[in-house]
Design goal:
alpha/beta, Rossmann fold, 5-stranded parallel β-sheet, 4-stranded parallel β-sheet, 12 helices, 11 strands, globular, binds N-carbamoyl-L-aspartate
Amino acid sequence: MNFVGQDILSVDQFERADVERLFDVADAMEPFARRERITRVLQGAILSNLFFEPSTRTRISFGSAFNLLGGEVRETTEIRETSFAKGESLHDTARVLSGYSDVIVMRHPEPGSVGAFARASRVPVINGGDGPNEHPSQALLDLYTVRKEMRARGGGIDGLRIALIGDLKYGRAVHSLCKLLALFEGVRFNLVSPPGLEVSEEIAAALRRRGHAVNEGHELETGIHHVDIVYVTRTQEERFPSQEEADRYRGLFRLNQAIYTEHCEPNTVIMHPLPRDSRSQAQELDEDLNANPNLAIFRQTDNGVLVRMALFAMVLDVVGRVDADARPVTWYTGKRTPR
Ligand code: NCD
């Protein structure tokens, strides 16, 4: 795939080689994200960040990634603050905003909406999550994290054993991650959800068709035995037909240090796309795991900046110029160890 000028709407666009190329570019972004060097390779470029659903990491890390490459970011976060509230269509908004931008990132509650927007846009559009459908940049950063964590433990993605836990029906991050993992060889998936929140038959069948092992179950403790990665997700309560229905699922799977010690292998990596629901009724990833060195959730969020920088650099065709444009950082860059 040639990334230049492309929309990034679905992980279905990628072959394994594309993903690996993107990850190599993400590796090269590390000195910039670590504030060792600066580059202004996107100076003068404008990103429009349109987020019509709640977001902390995705919106801000896309914005930071663009800033780290030297570009400017314009943010829009509320449907009621835009002309959508006056009945304007996705088509017209895309025609207008693409005149003001070099690239657009969009999150929207309707499946397929970002694709419809992209068809009317004159600049590349990146899907920041379209309802329960897809979240390609999250899956890319998750897979990039899997690659890094496995390499640090002497392994790789081929032959990976992964447990995906929680709301597999509405979780778009899981949908995109399953499809990306399917590009690799011999993955073993333990799909663990409450009854009623299973992954779609379509996704499970596609994994089996590509020769991967798929075990579906409803119990946390057995699902996390003999796996390299435990990937926990939040109940996507905003997607349920009613709050009462969502409430039935809250807090069913809670991973804490005691359960981890009893059932996981000593080196099992814990991941989560975040936000983790830390309310007392949910506690899907207990805070007593914060001291566990295999908790990779904040390495995941840091990796998000690298992967999003790589996406911008490839789509806007500046990969080859990032280094030539670089100089050392001159301000204080010490970071404290958080408690
Ligand atoms: C995920 C999302 O929005 O789909 N969050 C994120 O972008 N990191 C997962 C979630 O909200 O549970």
